[in-house]
Amino acid sequence: MKRKQCLAVCLLCVIILTGCGSGEREAGSGPEGAENAVSSRSDLETRQGREAIPLELPQGEVPERTVVEYTWDHPVTVDGGRQLTIRLFCQAEYQYSSWGYSVKDIEVLEGNALLQSISIEEADTAALVQEGIDPDYAQAQTHCWEPDGSLHLNDLNFDGHPDLRLLEGTGVVNSRYLCWLWDPDSQTFRFAFSLVGYDVQIDAEEKQIITTARDSMTHITSYYTYDETGTLQLVDRDSVTPEMG
Known about the structure:
By secondary structure, the chain is mainly beta. The protein is built from three helices and twelve strands. It has helices spanning 2-18, 41-44, 120-131; strands at residues 66-78, 82-95, 98-110, 113-119, 151-154, 163-170, 175-183, 188-197, 199-203, 208-215, 218-226, 232-240. It is globular.
């Protein structure tokens, strides 16, 4: 088991460091298997969300690998005024004299009512299938440096609704994000694609997403737009390798 976990971490680092992921495939708005990343709304609409847990880090000397469970809420407005809460279930771990943070799963709440439950592992599995990578390497939680889970609320498909872009992990240079789009028909966030790069720009004027990643000394800029079916497609790419003086 430890060997498999080590291989999984190494593979994630390779994806991030080489700027692979979405840059080497067509990014779909509805990947095969993504429906497994969202629990049925009919099963959840009568349930209550789990209670919030404030982040309370221990003071003074902290033993290595101390773990603290907590939640972090992000308010979001959809459908022209509907108020929802994106509740991240997080973990803080003290290692190498500093705190690191991760997100294990997500709940979407309206008041206290649970509308949707999102699994990080199932979303990452769908992303790896898109990328042509063995889904057995899917991660069960993210890795970030900010206690808020590094969740970005962006309109990723330019339909006027906020979507979710969650940092999954960062290598030496590049970061990898898992992205869910708000679906007005199902009233849920549906996993769509991953993005990789040290810079991600959401260009609302041109309705495109631009990522810049580094592979060794080469900087690769990728341009994505949506086709008539609402699927995100890679439409252009350029690269620059600085001359060594």
